[in-house]
Amino acid sequence: MPEPTVPSRRGILFGTAAVSAGALLTACTSNDPKEAKDAADDRAAPVADDTPGRPVTIGFAGPQADHGWLNAINDNARSRAKKYSDVTLEITEGSNDTAAQIGQVQTLINKKVDVLVVLPADGKALTQVGLQAMRAGIPVVNLDRIFASPQAYRCWIGGDNYGMGLNAGRYIGERLKDTPDAKVVELAGVDSLELTRQRTQGFDDALKNYPNITKVARQAADFTVESGQAKTAQLLQAESDFHALWNHDDDQGVGALRAIAQAGRKDFLMVGGAGARSAMDAIKADDSVLKATVLYPPTMAASAIDIARALAQDKGIGGLSEQEIPASITLYSAVVTKDNVDRYLPTGFR
Question: Given this model, what pLDDT does residue 65 score?
Fold first, then answer.
């Protein structure tokens, strides 16, 4: 999963793009369902209009697609580029080896692409090549995992890991607010990643508003089905009585649900993270403990293509008074439940 350090949650919030990956939400920061729906219904124009402009070559470099979310990132970038007759997409073979990815970005720079979209395997390690591109006059759209210097990119767009945890905690808190001595457990991601710490911090901060709820256990998994199953089995053995489980990632959630089914447990609710299609299908069926998932939408890659095209063609963003594209765009972590899952199903990744 991605590892950004979000520049600011006070920046512009991009919606989850349930209808169009490039649609800008008008300050959709409310947790009130009606307000959120009204904001979604008032979507402004796409990031860049569809009227053909001058031909643009966009270089796209991302990490190896060894995870459902990362594969969806590549799919979103490709499909969005195909919508524009004036865009040529130069996409590299993804790599988790930072030296290899640096070489791939340098190759795109040498090809003199008009703009770069880079989701770095390691933001800090790829900062220098981002700076190299910017110095060469090639604007860089930094996708999700952020470079160490704002000088290495023209625009950053990514998800809100803290917001994921915060909204998961709020959802669980509201479900359990009338339950005396409620207990929750957490199935985290990889503890060495900053994103995991941000998700945990957001969750813990949300629970502070519910004094009747205590987090009694936490296990860190590895964003894989196998680790999700093994770590959940350990949680279930260690904790015989709890009311909710917050799982950071829907891929490892597949394994978590297997362990829960094998244990025959149905006495708690589960909230996932990221927005996999399998999770949304389970939420819609309403036949398991999984009742919600908090989005970390891979549609950000489609929006990054929109932004890259707009930068190359010297266009702005529809719906904003400013002529220039913002320096940073933070997506909103919507909570998908049985009540709204149909709206988000088109964005669910496999």
Answer: 84
